[in-house]
Amino acid sequence: MKIVIVGNGKVGFSLAEQLVREKYDVVIVDLREDTLRRAADALDIMSVKGNGISAATLIEAGAPDADLLVAATNADEINMVCCLTAKHLGAKYAIARIRNPEYNTGLSDLKRNMGIDMVINPENATAVEISRLLRFPPAANIETFCRGRVELIGFRLLEEDFLVNRPLHALSDQVKQLSLLFCAVERPGGEVVIPNGSFVPQAGDKLYLIGRPSSLDQFFRLLGRYSPKVKSVFIVGGGKISLYLSAVLEKMKMRVKIVEIQKDRCRFISERLPHTTVICGDGTDQELLEEEDVTASDAFVALTDRDEDNLIISLYAMQQGIPKVVAKSNRQNYAGIAHAAGLDSVISPKLLTAGQILQVVRGMQNSKGSVMNALYKIADGHAEAMEFVANATTRNRDTPLRELRLKPGILVAVLVHQGRIVIPDGSSSIAAGDTVIVISRNHGILDLNDIFEDSLLELGGDA
Predict the structure, then answer these.
(1) CA distance 393 to 367
(2) Burial class (CB in 10 A: 0-12, 13-18, 19+), 127
């Protein structure tokens, strides 16, 4: 499968890195010699220097024969024209990064007229992700499936939690009756485990729990982690993410205060968000934070353009006892440092975007198999959570899970059968039309059939 990526910035490079890891044929296009050299050296891929709008440049990159072109430059307009040109040249599918909120109202017409098959907006996706965390503060991260009917939540175990040093099978009936599943564990050293009943959680482990939102809510109440709803949010940085996020939070009836250093930007935000308090100043200045009574906020979100500043002021906010702290950081090594310091809610726009596109790529490669509706990277990218719809091509249907030979590191976490959410046990089976949520470690799953070994236990064939 041939993929052309125009724009080798944070999103472009991160996407190329993941696609190369999964053995796709990737070509990078960019005007900057240094970024192309970096991609060629780090990823060992073909690079083309030139403007993505130019037909000659796109032809040199192989756009006429490309299965997918992703336009991810910093300019929305260039991305649109790039997709239009590529589709006219013969590219089968085109994705454009469009970030300006002013384009949102006419997006459907824009896609149709410009030949764009899919629009990605990293800032809006990041804002949605953060709003989920503020809706449910105990979680370090939240992923949604089945249109919100199922959620996957990651959280860090504390020394005093009742799960610590007890095998999962020994948990109380009160927990077992909640209809949820511990589906993955990230250990402090970076090891990722798909747990079974004998697994013994330790303090410092990051556990991933999946189930109905109501069941997860009850679990955190039992754990003693339930916290009151967030009513006030303090945001540092007034970029696009802050604008999208504040608009969402206003609808959720939360009070929002934004600190932004540029006067023109403050004026723009005030005009767009009349119900949001905007402070012109340096949000990394401790004195300003104290003057604005940051500790009175229920949540603190760091969204400046500098990852280093975001992490430092987030750690300061944690020290001040603010109940929920979220930081934006695109650098994976910084996220690891933050987690070690106790800051679990670190959001990466580039990884969110790469995950969205990766889902499309796998779906295109698996055009005749089961439909993939969602794909999320979890445990710092070392595991994946996917939502499929089983169909006539799915093997081993109607066979009890206990009789199936699944690949190592694979877990069938949730089945949705005839509208009913099921946490499966050994007697459960997959039927055509079921939604199936799968957790995978170290597998690039394209199709639901990819979770199976070649044969059934003791049965020797398909069901």
Answers:
(1) 11
(2) buried
